[in-house]
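Handout, page 2. Input:
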Amino acid sequence: MKKEFWLERWERAEIGFHQNEINPYLLRFGQKLSVSPGGEVFVPLCGKSLDMVWLRQQGGTVLGVELSAIAVQDFFKENGQSPTHSDSGKFECCEADGIRILCGDFFDLGKEDVANVSAVYDRASLVALPPEMRERYARHLAEILPPATKILLVTFDYPQAEMQGPPFAVSVNEVEALYGKYAEIRLLAQEDVLAQNPRFRERGMSRMQENVFLLTLR
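Output:
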């Protein structure tokens, strides 16, 4: 999947993946990230997620990375903030009120960019990537993050043949295959959500569940 796919989705405002409220799993399990006051939470492929506002309200700072400048601009505008801007070469950095978003490619991140991170929230990142990119994503994340970083991960699981992603189906077994060599994995919740997603039922989906994991990097 090329960068242009996501850039075009934002340009056309085809952003059905965006949630207009705080994710219920974050409200339910966010405290398990154990973010200390002043700690930093990383939100990869963050879009304009309101979850970043909630994370900031818990006392830590927030670091996002997002490919689309439209998404970054919309986030700060819709939350009534006027960010400062700086350029680091690979990224344009926009920051306001303890939330900093790097506009650029996730795979250009280095250890220095996430050196202060102690927790990661991934609701829409792993499931946005096709199979051939997910292993690269998990490996890169594990390589750049500090040891003992906690990751709250939300995935969808459904018969992939019934719908073309994104969001892509990511099973419990795949999460274990992707992250087992890097982290301790704990399944926190597994819920049937097909009834709550009529647009997926209309596309012929027979089964859909959401899985919530807590990963702790070694």
